[in-house]
Amino acid sequence: MKNIIYFLSILLLVSSCSDLTDMNNDEKNPSTVPAYSLFTSAQKGIAEQVVNTSVNKNIFRLVNQQWTETTYTDESVYQWTTRKISDNHWGAFYAGTTTNDGSLGDLEQAKYYIESEVILATDPQFAAKTSIQKNQLAMIDILSVYSYQILVDTFGDIPYSEAHKGSGNYLAKYDKALDIYKDLIVRIDSDIANINPAYEGFGNADIIYRDQLSLWIKFANSIKLKLGINLKASGLEEALADAAIISASKGTFTSNDDNAKIAYQTNVPNTNPVYVDLVFSGRHDFVPAQPFVDALVAKNDPRTTVYFAQNLKDTNGEALPYKGGVVGLKNSFGKFTQIGALIQLLDFKGTYLDYAEVEFLLAEAVERGVAISGDAATHYTNAITASMKDWGIAQAAIETYLTQPTVAYASATGTWQQKIGEQAWYALYNRGFEGWTSTRRLNFPLLSPPSNADASAEGQIPSRMNYPIREQTLNTMNYNAAAASIGGDKLTTKIFWDKN
């Protein structure tokens, strides 16, 4: 049965006044927020950032040339400083939600409250309460690991060991990206070991899996697999990478039923962020990009019917071929293929990680020589099938697609990087950040920057984001050290695993 996850409004519970002293309390701004509310807030905040389409916050669909712009082209040509996009992406995780400390801040605060709860050894429910507490801490940490990986994969070296120390250290040092990755693997291993599905976690406050702890274990293993694959691609710490991939592969997602998704409601503000950005706003800022549209059309991909709208008609009202917008130029909204209606629904689910991505990673693991079960062709086929099923494509259409010589693993054009990279690009539609990560790691598909790209990109597709302007001005000493460490705070500086 599909996991149907109902988005919860975050409730801040405050007690009613019992005497005159209580009248001094601001009930609308409680000094202590329940841990479960902070956990829900963090889940929502992370999803908002990876799903939204705002040019101020999330421009990865544009970087990855799945979408392009109609009127304002700054983001498509890599002029990212005017809107402080790096600051906003950074801040979504580090600073700016319920605790004014971002999703990671919410998670750290929830962790603090839970760890502060003393469970007496004499309590008859000591064993159960201890297990619940361990489950909650593991769930919190899994989301923290997920968030830190995104930050590393965006910027490289980042504040980590000194992050969220509050008054203890507002100007955090930057840790090496490789060292962070190694620690994240240790953390995720501990989280997997600490979860006991026989006990509950956050109950209904868990808006990803509704407290199905066995699925949290699969989610953690799938995150670990991605960490391992990126580490393997770096050519560094090969033994650690192999061990992480092999152990994770035994407990990852095994079907779309396991997908880590958040379902939205049909009432604002709990609606799908894509609906907010594309429909509720009344704006028409994006169209599918020509490289993406042409690639899917050339392969007779049945996902075109859900990814794109068949809005172009001839004078007789007959449908015209799909036509993607030109990257870097202004594109009249009505003259190009438009974005499909499905992802614009109010309650369309937002994805953290899915089975299709896992299967592509497993295919890649085989090709990189890691000793896991299955062969690359099977994992590749499973990935394409999972993606199409998740988008509602009929089985017959899936089978027809897979038999095409240009699609079948044995006969598709190019190296394994090209085969997996291009198909992962198609499947990671509406997941711009992970699509960008896959493209950077595999160097496929082969994308070209627009001819009018900003000079800061040096004629290349950006490999990373610049550090936030706020860090440059307020945390100057640590910023300068980090910039020197990674080889320069440039769009062209590669993340440590980007070696192909």
* Count of DSSP-assigned helices: 18
In whole angstroms, the N-to-C terminal distance is 40 Å
The whole-number mean of residue pLDDT values reads: 92
Looking at the chains present, what oligomeric state does this protein adopt? single chain
Low-confidence stretches: 1-30, 96-100
Furnish the topology, listing elements before pairings.
Layout: H1 35-51, H2 60-63, E1 67-69, H3 85-94, H4 102-116, H5 126-155, E2 158-159, E3 174-175, H6 177-194, H7 213-234, H8 238-249, E4 260-262, H9 273-280, E5 286-288, H10 290-298, H11 304-307, E6 308-309, E7 338-339, E8 350-353, H12 355-367, H13 376-390, H14 395-402, H15 416-427, H16 432-442, H17 469-474, H18 476-486
Antiparallel strand pairs: 1-5, 2-3, 4-8, 6-7
Structure overview:
By secondary structure, this protein is mostly helical. The chain has 18 helices and eight strands. The chain has helices at 35-51, 60-63, 85-94, 102-116, 126-155, 177-194, 213-234, 238-249, 273-280, 290-298, 304-307, 355-367, 376-390, 395-402, 416-427, 432-442, 469-474, 476-486; strands spanning 67-69, 158-159, 174-175, 260-262, 286-288, 308-309, 338-339, 350-353. Strands 1-5 form a two-stranded antiparallel ribbon. α7 (213-234) packs parallel to α12 (355-367). The protein is globular. The model is unreliable at 1-30 and 96-100 (pLDDT under 50).
